[in-house]
Amino acid sequence: MSEAPRTRAGQLPTRAEQAEGWRAPGQDAGWLNPVTERFLLRLLVRKELRVRYRGSALGMLWSYVKPAVQFITFYIALGVFLQLQRDTPAYAVYLFSGIVVVNLFGEVFGNATRSITGNQALVSKIYLPSQLFPWSSMIVALVHFLPQLLVLIVGALLFGWLPSPTAALAFVLGMAILLIFTMGLGMITAALNAAFRDVENFVDLIVMVATWLSPVLYRVSMVEESIGGTFWFWLYQLNPLTIVVELFHVAFWRYSPEVVERVAVDPSLLSPHEPLGLWWAGLLIAVVTFVIGTVVFERSKRRFAQEL
């Protein structure tokens, strides 16, 4: 058998070799790497999952434990003590549909930010397409998101929710905006964190504040009553997390029988842009953020090994 042709040492591939898929060392497909290097991406995902649960007794059960503790804490403090469940029908579904959004945002954002520094041994010793690290972190976060989504669906069904085309559309739009926007932010902070480790602490602050600056624990109508008509309310509505949380509310909370009945009597329960809200603005902001993040990451990746 004849051997496969090899690139000549110290020279770039010829056009014929490029046509056959040959690339010079250090060259890759850029932002298309997650598509062209799917095998490597799967290996990184498996590695992250094994490392995450090494020595853990509960393993994947932590995907249920953390959101369950969050939900119980917020529900007792806000739903019971502050009586928000009295003013918000099906408050348990309303609350949990927002919690799963900020949990996914926090895990994707935090993991992507640490994806380069957390894989320092791989980045500094061998060549791998750098884009695979934040993308593998996103896939791991989605693996942890699925059990929470299952619990949300079961909870919504217990309150009489039935799937509908509007709910499905709201869910798909919400997931698209959230993942595109968060990956854009994550690639920016991953590039910055390789040079300045303070960035990951700043990201932790953003994730902590995100729960309170989006309508997870309260309704948008409450914010409108307080600061409606001002620049800050306009800015609040354009927050992509606000848009995604509202889309999840439409998907899992809005059309449950208890909510439909209350809205018929008191339409002020809903946000001013019901039912699908400012999805177009959220998608536009997400795409712009993703493009900026890709450009920043591409321009920074060749310095990662030296900075680490």
UniProtKB/TrEMBL annotation:
Residue ranges of coiled coil: none
Q: How does it sit in the membrane?
A: Multi-pass membrane protein
Q: Which Pfam families match?
A: ABC2_membrane
Q: Where is the ABC transmembrane type-2 domain?
A: 58-300
Highest taxon of the lineage: Bacteria
Q: Which UniProt keywords apply?
A: Antibiotic resistance, Cell inner membrane, Cell membrane, Membrane, Transmembrane, Transmembrane helix, Transport
Please report the name of this protein according to its UniProt entry: Transport permease protein
Q: What is the lineage of its organism?
A: Bacteria, Bacillati, Actinomycetota, Actinomycetes, Micrococcales
